[in-house]
Amino acid sequence: MAAQATESDQIKQFKEFLGTYNKVTENCFMDCVRDFTTREVKPEESSCSESCLQKYLKMTQRISMRFQEYHIQQNEALAAKAGLMPGTSL
């Protein structure tokens, strides 16, 4: 049963990843690709798409860090409220 839950979670995570990947790809494509008269990717299109992806990755990393900081603060506040933190008393 636990193996099924893990497999189900992995499938869910993979679907979420694919959804995010598709959104980023579409957004960067729409922002960067302008010329459909040639099969070649122009240097400015390539550079734009790389910058777009880098910006997304940095933004995702920053949000993740802030999310972790927030949860640490929340856990510390709960522990202090319960009197579990050293140096705190009620």
TrEMBL record:
Topology relative to the membrane: Peripheral membrane protein
Tagged with keyword Transport: yes
InterPro entries found in the cross-reference section: Mito_inner_translocase_sub, Tim10-like, Tim10-like_dom_sf
GO function term, MF aspect, one: metal ion binding
PANTHER family in the record: MITOCHONDRIAL IMPORT INNER MEMBRANE TRANSLOCASE SUBUNIT TIM9B
Family: Belongs to the small Tim family.
Subunit structure: Heterohexamer.
Name used for this protein in its record: Mitochondrial import inner membrane translocase subunit
Organism expressing this protein natively: Dissostichus eleginoides
